[in-house]
Amino acid sequence: MIPKSLRTKAEDPSCHIIVFLGGVDTGKTTLVWELAKELSKSYTVGVVDSDIGQSHLGPPTTIGWGIVLPDAEDWDEVQVRGIYFVGALSPQGHLLPTVVGTKLLCDDARTFCDKVIVDTTGLIWGDVGRILKSTKVDALAPDLVVGMQKGRELEPILNLWKGMNRPSVLKFQTPPEVRSKTWEMRYNYREEQFRKYFQEAKLVQVRWREVGIFNLSPERLAEMGDRQKGRVISLRDRQGKDRALGAVENVDPRGVLTIWTPLEEEVEVGGVVFGEVWLPEGALP
Ligand SMILES: Nc1ncnc2c1ncn2[C@@H]1O[C@H](COP(=O)(O)OP(=O)(O)O)[C@@H](O)[C@H]1O
Ligand SMILES: [Mg+2]
Question: Are residues 158 and 266 in the same domain?
Answer without folding.
Answer: no
